[in-house]
Design a protein that fits this description.
The longest helix has 21 residues. It contains 4 helices and 5 strands. Helices cover 45% and strands 27% of the residues. It has a 5-stranded mixed beta sheet, sandwiched between helices. The protein has one domain: 2-Layer Sandwich (Transcription Regulator spoIIAA), CATH 3.30.750.24. The chain is of the alpha/beta class and 129 residues long.
Length: 129
Amino acid sequence: MPHHVGWHIPLWVLEARFEGRVAVSEMSQLAEAYIQFLTEAEQHAPARMIYLLFDTSDAENMPPMYSMLAYGLPVLKFKNRGPAFHVTRSGVIRKMIEVTAFVSGFKVTTYTTRDSAIKAIEAVLIKTH
C-alpha cells in the first residue's frame, strides 16, 4: 500500500505518498482508493473538483508505464477529477509520470518540493473558489 492515501483537505485535495520501491500492486491500491475518494466527493460535494497531491519524492522507482496506465484508466471517467500536483526530485520518475499523464489525458504539474506543490494547490483553490 502507498505510504499514505487520504484527504489532505477533506473533499478538496486527495493526497498519495509513496516511499522506497513502488510495486505494481500499489498502483492498483492507489487507483482503488482514488475511485473511493472521488465517489465520496461526488456524493458529498457534487460540483467540486478534487485535486491530487501525488508525492513520490521518497520513492526509489515507479512501476512500468503500462501498469500505471491500466490502473489509472478507470479514474478518467470521473468528471470531478481535477489536475494532479506531483512532487519528485527524480528526473526519471518525473518523466514517467509526465508521459503517462500525457498518454492518458490526465493533467499533471510536477514540483521539486512538497511546499511548492501545496502553495500551487492553495493558489488554484483561492483562484477558482
